Amino acid sequence: PPPPQLLAEIKDKELAETKNSEEKASSVAPDDLIHIRQLKMSAATGGDIDLDDGSDLIRAIGSNDAEGGGQDWKHIHQLTGFADPIYAEAMLQVNDYDIKLEILCINRTAESLVTNIELNTMGDMKLVERPQAKVIGPLDQAIIKASIKVSSTESGHLFGTIVHENADTGVKGYINMSSIHMDIMDYIRPATCTDESFRSMWAEFEWENKVAISTSIKSLPEFLEHIVASTNMNCLTPYDKTDVSMFLACNLHARSVFGEDALVNVSVEKKSDGKLSGYIRIRSKTQGIALSLGDRITAVQRKVDEEEKDASREQ
Prior knowledge:
By secondary structure, this protein is α+β, with helices and mostly antiparallel strands. Helix content is 25%, strand content 34%.
């Protein structure tokens, strides 16, 4: 059993988190006015008409910054080069089962171009609404939309070609677009379960991926927190954050928006030279989650190494 000191620290942490959440909860005084937009007069002017815009923006984009503070810039992908006749970049709006794709096309030539985008998918994704052809004037721009249906949590790719035709001469040209890699982290949510359920699912799931630990992080708790933050998973095992032990073994659990469970077991040993070694085992019912999470964990370990190498070079 864990030592009493660790249990006391966990209890104090839970009480502090509960107190902070209660303090952050919005409260309304008894004498505050209630603004109902539907009952306002149409002649209302000035700032009164926008009293509820802040809450609306928070519900819509997760931020009350009207200048785009809730914009997720990691979902913007460059598809073509700056020297191509048509410069294109895509913005993805991931809504669990649906993906809305908006492609900004800029005509960099002095002639009108009939632009058509041919998209293809790889993985459990289906193109529901194909992009429509548009005529883009000289040095003009247009937004071409498409809709994609997602059926499972699996790494997918979008790729295609831009076909442009000169509206006057009829000469066609082709531009191969850069592929768009769908991030599995958009579909993974932290989850919790009992130890008995974890062991039962661990024995039941048939797909396993084993990733060797190779990182420059020297602290066991720091490495665990980095893995948890990078994979959107929940740590089920209480651990000591003082980093006095030479071993660390814990279980992580996450669930996709499609109801698929992902289990991770982290077993790390701190060697005498200070380096960490061990394995991270991933199990799931589907092969896609096990492979995608393994690739994600491998990538974030490599990213840490690259960041520290860049810091050492700057010094």
